[in-house]
Design goal:
- The complex is a heterodimer of chains A (555) and B (327).
- Chain A has 555 residues and is mainly α.
- Chain A is 66% helix and 1% strand.
- By secondary structure, chain B is α+β, with helices and mostly antiparallel strands.
- A 5-stranded mixed β-sheet of chain B has the order 3-2-1-5-8, with helices on one face. In chain B, strands 4-10-9-6-7 form a 5-stranded mixed β-sheet. Chain B has a two-stranded antiparallel sheet with strand order 11-12.
- The longest helix of chain B has 32 residues.
- Classes of the chains: A mainly alpha (555), B alpha+beta (327).
- Chains A and B meet through helix 3, helix 5, helix 8, helix 9 and helix 10 of A and helix 1, helix 2, strand 7 and strand 9 of B.
């Protein structure tokens, strides 16, 4: 730990990237860091596919009659956009890439508890992804990502069967990752790493893993039932065979609502790491942020039927689920208040990860608050299945989860690659993403209140102006995503050497070289400090004594 | 009155003003928090920017009173949203008694509407202003959703279920309705227009287009004979199945000791799945008509059974609970 920020940084001579060479050393690796990079490549691939579909959707909607494709093709575009983005990008993104890379290092472990199972998760993901790509390329999929029966199980003429098999298989990848994380956090923490010294990112991954394990089996079975109904005409959901299509929705949302928290909780964990680092102070209300992750994971299992307020479900069920949906909003609010308070009297830098974190707060705020509109029974009658819902969940999943993921990639990029990215370009990209995102999705709230239904290949002409605004925003947004892909790739080879702790930050991952050695640490670390504590960390080379008086004088 | 870029659709039903008021209330609270938090973030961002590369922030670990405040206050506000939303929703889900009942059938990708007189429309719905209208919704295939933004109402149309929705149009005019549950290829084309007319005009319209009408009661009575319902459901109550006179809207005692109100959904279920609810004192003999009747035929049969509401129920051999005929 000799490196101080002032010293000239050098790449370590041997690290996990150059420890072994050859394609076999990657495809058969059990190193959690290499597996994280395998995931990084594969989720980026699916992000590109989903992004290409999104681009075509937005171009198509420039004109009320639809500019680009036939209605059949349009229906496939939004379905495949959803399936690729949700099951193969958003759900694995932060856990399988950043979580895989960081979770063992953050708790001072050499690897995950089950390194081979970790590799198996990736192969299962690939097999599931292969089935889904097969569906996309042989007829496509037009059921909506929600696979509602009996449309999916009886009426659709598209390649539904390989798609549901793919999503079914992919579920096991999530389950195994969740299992691996939970066991690792319980059994492999370094000496001194108590539960309440865990980084909040680890708490968030732990909460996410609970949902992986408890929720994923339900979606897997549900899609299997829908697939069996389609293939063998068994009557689970088809009323003509004595089934009930609403049963499918209950089962589907029992997983798929918690799945929203699978996407957003890890991003919240990323934000909880970035903000203290770039405000250089302990996070405000550590235990409340940690506890709220668990609260979201638990309460999140009891709100699913708020997707079904207008299916004809009983009024009492609707009242119960509306009330519970309001309860789950509280822990999210608690997090936002605590992050904001952390900024108070901080020493705030304008580094790129911080811009993403603050952008996240702004977008998640709008995404979360508009959830209150949809949880409201009286309003949901009007808003349900309109563009208001589309805007709301994109604010959560793209404004929240993707901003968190991209912000986290920037924050840990020096650790992952040992290199710094070009800071100015990165700030430009962050601001571009924020502006492009808002221009794309804010008009959709208004479209939704005006009544424009989702999943429409054509629409009444009065909705055109707002749709054109949205498409204009999407082109800015696309630019915002391309920029980081270019300069991050560039930086792997040409970037400035980062050193072990460029920010500097307090977590264990920053106490090992960048990139870390295969074993993560040369000596098992011992944790003697509280999380996000800058005051008792002389090793960071910061001006601890001067700071408080400076801040006071500043008031 | 509406500008070129309106923020809300026209208000054309009893629910519209309530829903919009609720929208304003929640928007006001949310805007307050969004602005306050954004302002705080931006202010701190500039106020506490790092002035010296080695500077650290003031170690503040938390504050119990603040944590309590920002749990309790949002919770209270959220509960007020829940409460108001619940009031609007319960009102919407409980149709009043005196409704004008119109059958709506969704199928890929069109809407078939049947007025009480039997007048049929495709992708059009005519209703009188100021009258409580109840739509009874059925689907021939997949899940659809009938949605009228100007009325602020929607309801899924689910195969195998009857869903109902009601509204009272308050303003004459023509308003879009949409299918709002994705239903396959031409989902986006599965819409049409609600025409709200003055009551006089509506009656004139109903009778004026009567030549194309098949009276659903007549059609239903014909089916009732064709499907051999008459062999068991004898009107004098001596058959193997209960007389249907006076049954509709009445309480029916069941074999398991409970009672059920004979509404559209009950009649439909008894036709398609007769074993589900056996009338007290009768054997489960009736065959299922699942797959043998279209949704429209079921609605015709229901209309016929409804028309028997005014017939006197026999004292013995009726599905009507003896002391509950008055309902």
């Amino acid at each position: 730990m000799s490196a101080t920020p002032a010293a000239v940084n050098q790449m370590p001579r041997e690290h996990y990237l150059n420890a072994t060479y050859g394609i076999r050393s990657w495809l058969l690796t059990t190193d959690h860091k290499r597996i994280a990079l395998l995931y990084l490549a594969s989720v980026t691939f699916f992000f590109f596919i989903g992004g290409a579909f999104a681009t075509m959707i937005r171009i198509h909607l420039l004109s009320p009659k639809g500019l680009l494709v036939t209605p059949e093709t349009y229906n496939k575009l939004f379905t495949m956009h959803g399936v690729a983005m949700i099951f193969f990008f958003l759900i694995p993104s932060i856990p399988a890439v950043l979580g895989n890379f960081l979770l063992p290092i953050m708790i001072g472990a050499k690897d995950l508890a089950f390194p081979k199972i970790n590799l198996l998760s990736w192969y299962i993901y690939l097999i599931g992804g292969g089935f889904v790509l097969y569906s996309f390329s042989t007829g496509g999929l037009d059921t909506g990502w929600t696979f509602y029966t009996p449309l999916s199980s009886v009426y659709s003429n598209s390649a539904v069967t390989p798609a549901v098999i793919g999503v079914f298989i992919n579920g096991f990848s999530s389950i195994l990752t969740g299992l691996n994380f939970i066991v690792t956090v319980h059994t492999m923490r370094a000496p001194g790493m108590t539960w309440f010294r865990l980084p909040l990112f680890v708490w968030a991954q732990y909460a996410t893993s609970i949902i992986f394990i408890l929720g994923t089996p339900v979606i897997a079975i549900t899609l299997l039932l829908a697939g069996m109904e389609r293939m063998f005409h068994l009557g689970f959901f088809n009323p003509q065979l004595g089934g009930d299509p609403i049963l499918f929705q209950h089962l589907f949302w029992f997983y798929s609502h918690p799945a929203v928290y699978i996407m957003i909780l890890p991003a919240m964990g990323v934000i909880s790491e970035i903000i203290p680092t770039f405000a250089r102070k302990p996070i405000f209300g550590y235990s409340f942020i940690a506890g709220s992750s668990i609260a979201i994971a638990v309460i999140g299992f009891f709100v699913w039927a708020h997707h079904m307020f207008v299916t004809g479900e009983s009024t009492y069920a609707a009242l119960t689920f509306s009330l519970l949906s309001y309860l789950v909003a509280i822990p999210s609010a608690v997090k936002v208040f605590n992050w904001t308070s952390t900024l108070y009297k901080g020493s705030i830098s304008y580094d790129t990860p911080m811009l993403y974190a603050l952008g996240f707060i702004g977008l998640f705020l709008i995404g979360g608050l508009t959830g209150l509109f949809l949880a409201c029974l009286g309003l949901d009658i009007h808003l349900h299945d309109t563009y208001f819902v589309i805007a709301h969940f994109h604010y959560i999943m793209v404004g929240g989860a993707v901003m968190g993921y991209v912000g986290g990639l920037h924050y840990w990029w020096p650790k992952i690659t040992g290199k710094l990215y070009p800071e100015f370009l990165a700030r430009v990209a962050a601001v571009t993403l924020f502006l492009g995102f808002n221009l794309t999705f804010f008009p959709q709230f208004i479209l939704g209140y005006l009544g424009m239904p989702r999943r429409y290949a054509s629409y009444p002409p009065e909705f055109q102006v707002l749709n054109v605004m949205s498409t204009a925003g999407a082109s800015i947004l696309a630019l915002g995503y391309l920029l980081p892909m270019i300069y991050l790739t560039w930086s792997m080879r040409y970037g400035e050497v980062a050193g072990p702790n460029p920010w500097p930050a307090t977590g264990l991952e920053w106490k090992t070289p960048s990139p870390p050695p295969t074993e993560n640490f040369d000596v098992t670390p011992e944790v003697t400090w509280e999380p996000y504590d800058y005051d008792n960390r002389p090793d960071l080379g910061l001006d601890v004594k001067g700071a408080p008086s400076l801040a006071h004088g500043d008031d | 009155m509406q500008s070129d870029l309106p923020l809300y659709p026209e208000q054309a039903s009893n629910f519209a003003a309530n829903v919009d008021a609720l929208m304003v209330y929640i928007t006001a609270i949310c805007a307050f928090f969004a602005v306050a938090i954004t302002a705080a973030v931006v202010y701190f961002f500039f106020k506490y920017r790092r002035k010296d590369p080695a500077e650290v922030g003031v170690p503040i670990h938390g504050d119990m009173r603040l944590e309590t405040a920002w749990i309790v206050v949002p919770l209270f506000l959220a509960l007020t949203m829940f409460g108001w939303g619940a009031v609007v929703y319960v009102d919407y889900r409980r149709a009043p008694m005196d409704t004008l009942d119109i059958y709506v059938i969704g199928k890929q990708w069109m809407w078939k509407v049947q007025q009480p007189t039997g007048l049929r429309e495709i992708n059009e719905l005519h209703v009188p202003v100021g009258r409580n209208v109840k739509l009874i919704l059925a689907s021939e295939d997949v899940i659809h959703d009938f949605s009228v933004p100007a009325f602020r109402v929607k309801m899924d149309v689910v195969p195998g279920h009857y869903n109902t929705m009601w509204f009272r149009p308050t303003k004459a005019g023509r308003y879009h309705f949409f299918c709002q549950q994705y239903c396959g290829t031409n989902h986006a084309l599965m819409g049409g227009w609600v025409t709200v007319m003055e009551p006089m005009e509506y009656s004139a319209w109903l009778s004026g287009s009567s030549d194309a009408t098949t009276n659903p009661v007549v059609a239903g009575e014909k089916l009732f004979v064709e499907k051999a319902c008459t062999t068991c459901h004898l009107s004098n109550g001596t058959g193997r199945a209960p007389s249907l006179n006076g049954v509709f809207g009445a309480k029916v005692p069941l074999a398991d000791g409970s009672t059920v109100t004979a509404d559209d959904a009950y009649i439909r279920e008894s036709i398609l799945n007769p074993q589900a609810k056996i009338v007290a004192g009768y054997q489960p003999l009736m065959p299922s008509f699942q797959g043998q009747l279209t949704e429209e035929q079921i609605m015709d049969l229901t209309s016929y059974i409804k028309s028997l509401q005014s017939q006197p129920a026999p004292t013995k051999g009726s599905g009507v609970a003896p002391d509950a005929g008055k309902k």
